[in-house]
Design goal:
It is globular and about 70 Å long. It contains 13 helices and eight strands. It has an eight-stranded mixed sheet, sandwiched between helices. 43% of the residues lie in helices and 17% in strands. The protein is α/β, with parallel strands linked by helices. The N terminus is likely disordered. A hairpin with a 2-residue loop joins strand 1 and strand 2. The protein has two domains: 34 residues; 258 residues, Alpha/Beta hydrolase fold, catalytic domain (Rossmann fold).
Length: 296
C-alpha cells in the first residue's frame, strides 16, 4: 500500500472538510449578506412615515416571480419605478419611498429584481430581457399614467432594456451609475473561480446571484447595442467621476447611444463613487422631480 499517497489524500479530504465547515459557519453568521428586509417591518416604516396606502405585490411571467412594493394609488398620477443594483433589494430605495416630495406627486414602486429580496431569491436569471418584461407587466397596470424609471448600477441596463423593448411604456428614465458599456465591463477572471461548484455552494445566495448575473453581462449588453435607437424618452444620467466599480465612461457611452432620445442630460458628480444613490439623494431627487415636470 502506498502510505504516502494515502496520507496526501487524507490531508486533501480534511482540507476540503475544513473549507466546507468554515463556509457553513460563515453562511450561518452572515445573514445580513442576504440583502433582504423584513416585509412587515419595512411596511410599517413606510406607512408610519407617509401615511399613504402601501402594499407588497407580485407578478409572474414565464415562470419567474417578481415582488414589488407600491406606495400610493391613483388612476392618473405619474408612476416612478425604482430598480436596484447587484446585490440588493427594493430596500435600497427606502429613503426615496419616505420622501414626501416624491410620494405626494407620484405613485412610488420599488422592485426586488429576480434572484434578490423575495423575487425567486437565490435563483439566477441573468436575462435582462426577462427582467425588463416583468417590470413592463407592472407598468402595464397603469395605462393612464406617465412612467419614470430610476435604476442604479445593474438597474441601469435592466431599465434601458425595458425602454428599448417597450418604448410606449416609458416616459422618462434616470440612470444612476449604470453598468451599461460592454467595452468597459471588466474581465474579473476571479468571478469564474467563485462560480466553481464547491465555492458557489458556499457563497451566500445574494452574492452568488450577483456573481452569476455579472459574468454574462457583457454579452447581454452587446445584444442591446443595436436597440439603443428604440429609446425615445428623455434620459438623465448621473455618474460619479471616482466610481471604482462602474467606470465613469459608462455614462458617456450611454449618452452617445441615446441618439433618438428626446433629451439627454449628463450630470457628473465630482469625486462621487458608486454609492451616489445614497450619498447624493438631494441631487437624484431633483433629477426625478425635473423629469416629472418635463413629461407633464
Amino acid at each position: 500500500m502506498n502510505y504516502a499517497k494515502k496520507g496526501v489524500s487524507k490531508k486533501i479530504f480534511l482540507l476540503l472538510l475544513l473549507i466546507v465547515g468554515l463556509g457553513l459557519l460563515i453562511n450561518s453568521q452572515l445573514a445580513f449578506l442576504e440583502f433582504r428586509y423584513q416585509p412587515k417591518d419595512f411596511s410599517n416604516a413606510i406607512v408610519t412615515s407617509s401615511h399613504y396606502p402601501f402594499a407588497f405585490k407580485r407578478k409572474e411571467v414565464a415562470g419567474a416571480t417578481m415582488q414589488y412594493c407600491q406606495l400610493g394609488t391613483g388612476d392618473h398620477l405619474p408612476v416612478i419605478v425604482f430598480v436596484h443594483g447587484s446585490p440588493g433589494s427594493l430596500a435600497a430605495y427606502e429613503t426615496y419611498l419616505k420622501d414626501s416630495l416624491l410620494y405626494r406627486q407620484a405613485i412610488l414602486i420599488a422592485v426586488d429584481r429576480l434572484g434578490f429580496g423575495y423575487s425567486d431569491f437565490g435563483k439566477t436569471i441573468p436575462s435582462l430581457q426577462l427582467q425588463a418584461k416583468l417590470i413592463a407587466s407592472i407598468l402595464a397596470d397603469f395605462p393612464n399614467s406617465k412612467k419614470v424609471l430610476v435604476g442604479h448600477s445593474m438597474g441601469g441596463p435592466v431599465n434601458s432594456r425595458l425602454a428599448m423593448d417597450y418604448p410606449n411604456l416609458v416616459d422618462g428614465m434616470i440612470l444612476v451609475a449604470p453598468s451599461i458599456s460592454p467595452a468597459l465591463e471588466p474581465s474579473n477572471w476571479w468571478r469564474k473561480l467563485l462560480n466553481f461548484p464547491i465555492i458557489r455552494w458556499l457563497t451566500p445566495p445574494a452574492l452568488r446571484v450577483c456573481n452569476q448575473e455579472i459574468i454574462p453581462l457583457k454579452e447581454e449588453l452587446l445584444a442591446m447595442e443595436s436597440r439603443w435607437k428604440n429609446i425615445t424618452c428623455p434620459v438623465t444620467i448621473i455618474q460619479g467621476t471616482a466610481d471604482q466599480l462602474v467606470p465613469a465612461g459608462n455614462a458617456q457611452y450611454a449618452k452617445e447611444q441615446l441618439t433618438n432620445s428626446k433629451a439627454v442630460k449628463l450630470q457628473m458628480v465630482k469625486e462621487g463613487n458608486h454609492f451616489i444613490l445614497w450619498s447624493e439623494v438631494s441631487l437624484i431627487r431633483e433629477a426625478i422631480l425635473e423629469m416629472l415636470k418635463s413629461i407633464e
